[in-house]
Amino acid sequence: MALATQETVSLEDREEELRRTNHKLYLAICHHRSTRGKPLEFGKMKFLVPIYKALDNKRELCVQKSVQCGVSEALVVSHLEEAAKGLAILYVLPKTDNRNSFVQTRINRMIKSVPLYEKLLQSASVAKADSVMLKHYGRGIIKYVASNSWADFKEFPADALYLDEKDQMDQVVISMAPDRLQSSEHRLYRAVANPTVEEFGIDVDWRESTQGEWNIRCESCRTWQTLDWFENVVETVGTNDFRSRDKEWVKDPTNEHGVFCVRCGKPLDRFAAGKYVHAHPNRKKVGFRINQIFGARHIPMSEIVEAFFRATKNQTDLQLFYNSRLGIPFTAKGSKITRGDIFSCTTAEYQAPDNFEGTGAVLGADVGKVIHVAIRRVVTTKGNPNYPLLYLGKVRDENGLLRLARRFNVKFGVIDALPETRTVQRAQAIMSSLYAAYYNDSARYPRLDKQNKAITIDRTVSLDRVREAIDAKQYINPEAIKNAKEYLDHMSSSVRVLDDKGRFVWRETGADHYLHSEAYCLMAADMLASRNIFQFYEEESEEREEQRGKTRDEVLGEIGEREGGPTRQGITGINAGDTW
Question: What pLDDT is stored for residue 544 in this prediction?
Fold first, then answer.
């Protein structure tokens, strides 16, 4: 009996010491419960302990991670603990439906299932708020917002900023989110994400961080090593050609696949105790990277290995494997328009003219505070179009746009319909062949409204069209474009990534007006050439249409039945001889 009492006291002492030295880890072990009502288990997830400790004593933190590794649970514990102490928390999720689902199915259920959390919610020190957006909790307050709504960020001075799945967020909006911390003495920053492509989202944070990699020691040769897919699990034998390091698994794939030491080749315990080794330990932002070799306790290695070999046959699947399983970014060809891509379309023999009186000129315009304009000429040789550049620049209003159209004898133009609708309406009133473009991600195919001079098109497919034209060297640019910094910045600011629904989308990281001007210019070029505007866009939309209701033929049949609508033969009702 005395021994039992001594053990109980010892356990309580350990809990008290943990509460004083690492309060977040204390909450995670002694109070927190998962959404299934189970306590957190760190036996096979030892890599999480240093992250909890860093959340307790580091001002800036980022985690580049694989899926289902327990880091999101750490964010939940951390932000509730900080709010209870009196901090104002700004917790950001990608979209409004993500925010609603996260709060309703995760936060609310968790608070009800953990007595300490429910007590802190009920004992809020101010007038109580308890909604999907705002909660008074303990002595603090939490605001849950979506990255696609900048209005939700305004007028909320925060002490801590949480970015949960940063790569799926509106990068322009969240680039302004740290401003919410400026008046705080704490200024805590926590960014976590399953990465997508290089130099985007969480990878930007990672490159600025200490870059901590999880290391374990081989019990056979005592060598410390980072658990790396291409060093410990498979080996490279050629370009996109790999083989397993586990000879027994190769003989019998029903066996569990091993993880092997880089030095002696003996098997490793993937869940063994280890430590993070930081490449840049003196940097202010602490960074951690997690992969499924050590971060997926419920997933057998054989399942991960099989997924890898299947993924090597397809670039999209390979990107998903790198991102979701390895927790590292993957830049597939075509996921970003680079300066090198644009320079490959330049030639010293071509000089853009000051004005143009020939045929085939088309215009694309993106409307903002000013109007960004791209004008190109359509030149078709043996059925293959090329687009020499005539003009790049900005004008203030529709009158400046009209002067450019006359100066370069433009036959067709497409302009961004939103958000400056009045500017577009005034421009269309004085330019008879100017069409307004509406982006609609649910549009399976381009829709032309001849009466209202409008085109509706999927945004991703439209920007894919620009990428295709550059890859095919259809653009012809003068050497001077290499010095057009703003144009080059706009063209390279967007990245093609997989969204949370498994679809490819283009996400901007900064201003991208010229990229959209070029997209609109290509729409006008397709119209001018009487080319079937569906030709490219239909092919690009096939994967998307599988996720939606009607068949391709049904949709095209409906469009063709409309008076003046587009048909399989092309866009009807447009006279290529029309002028401004």
Answer: 46
pLDDT digits 0-9 by tens, 63-90: 999 998 999 999 999 999 999 999 999 9
Question: Is residue 519 situated within a structural domain?
Answer: yes
432 and 407 assigned to the same domain = yes
The label of the residue with tokens 């959209």 reads 516
Provide φ and ψ at 514, rounded to 5°.
-70, -30
Residue 289 near residue 213 (C-beta atoms within 8 A) = yes
Same domain, 109 and 62: yes
Say whether both 478 and 550 belong to one domain: yes
DSSP state of 230: I
- The total number of structural domains in the chain stands at 3
Question: Which residue(s) pair with 138 in the sheet?
Answer: none
pLDDT in tens, 116-129: 999 999 887 666 77
Is there a domain that residue 576 lies in? no
**How many Cα atoms are found within 13 Å in the side-chain-facing hemisphere of 282?**
0
Domain for residue 458, yes or no? yes
The answer to whether residues 258 and 397 belong to one domain is no
> Cα–Cα distances in Å, from 148 out to 103, 160, 201, 310, 446?
17, 19, 15, 35, 25
Which residues contact residue 415 at a Cβ distance below 8 angstroms, ignoring those fewer than 6 apart?
Answer: 364, 365, 366, 367, 371, 401, 424, 427, 428, 434, 435, 436, 437, 520
Strand partners, 547: none
Note down the domain range covering 316.
217-276+300-326
Q: At what angle do helices 115-122 and 71-84 cross, to 10 degrees?
A: 40
